[in-house]
């Protein structure tokens, strides 16, 4: 894929920027907590960042589709950098809580949707072919790498240097990466120049896109519930420090599975997605029976390692369901769907774990995740058309 004309001009820069974005949310937490000494204020600032990102991101994506990546994102990135630096300074100098939360909200609202920008460029340089599935698999694996490395880098810098150091590092990576990405003009998609509808482009108001939105919301429920429960499991077994390595192990397996899926091109997207969603749901429930930490490494490695085999086929179906003129907005709405799921599941599962223990947490996560295979089965008549289009395109190319 990297031998594709134009790919090396934008993809490495997108990887750098994405690492910065992957660091940002946790970096906000460290910066505010270090400056105020309060996890409550740090949590409020982090929540403001996440909510603003989920709410405003699709509108930024809509502007990108209409006016182009360079014109829109060059402005929003400047705001992101200014807000994040202001938050670092404010945390260090003891600014009022409302100012820190406000700056965190601005940073979240203007955080660049790097994954959507990069995927749109892949769609332009490779076209609608089987190679796009490989490109999306590469994107998915890169996402696993950045969200594996990013939190570790933030924690290391903020804990060993100064609390706001991780945030400054994230800003630097975003600035450098986006500068390189936005100057790669040849791969930038042509802006549509128009948009229909008020908050959501009418071209996205379809049953196909709605089904994918709900499916990604269900994956967000999984993403929100599992980290809380794995952490509770580790603490209950006197191994709290191993919660991170348990999650990291599953990310490595997921990364590998995504690369294999993209390289082999085997399996119809909807079929793979449905089958693996059933496996993840049952697997999450069975984790409630895990007796010790070594078994959890294996069990959650297998369950969490399947994530890429849902996200990548979903991305393939999404590019079939949406016109290129609204693709960036579509991807940002999908990201917001996942964020909504996380926002619902994390506190709910956290309450159940606090009240009834980690085993109930896994059962609750499984029950929430069951919405995914149920959605895919109920909407199969709608999504099967997208799968047929994807397979037909692959055969033709």
From TrEMBL:
- Report the GO terms under cellular component: plasma membrane
TM segment ranges: 72-92, 98-120, 167-188, 209-236, 242-263, 270-291, 297-318, 330-352, 358-378
Print the keywords alphabetically: Membrane, Transmembrane, Transmembrane helix
Gene Ontology molecular-function annotations:
transmembrane transporter activity
Q: What positions does the domain Major facilitator superfamily (MFS) profile occupy?
A: 204-397
Q: Which InterPro entries match?
A: MFS, MFS_dom, MFS_trans_sf
Membrane topology per the record? Multi-pass membrane protein
- The signal peptide annotation in the UniProt record is none
Coarse class of the protein's main subcellular location: membrane
Q: Where in the cell is it found?
A: Cell membrane
Which PANTHER family does the record cross-reference, listed alphabetically? Answer: MAJOR FACILITATOR SUPERFAMILY (MFS) PROFILE DOMAIN-CONTAINING PROTEIN, PTHR23542
Protein name per UniProt: Predicted arabinose efflux permease, MFS family
- Please give the organism: Microlunatus soli
Q: What taxonomic lineage is listed for the species of origin?
A: Bacteria, Bacillati, Actinomycetota, Actinomycetes, Propionibacteriales
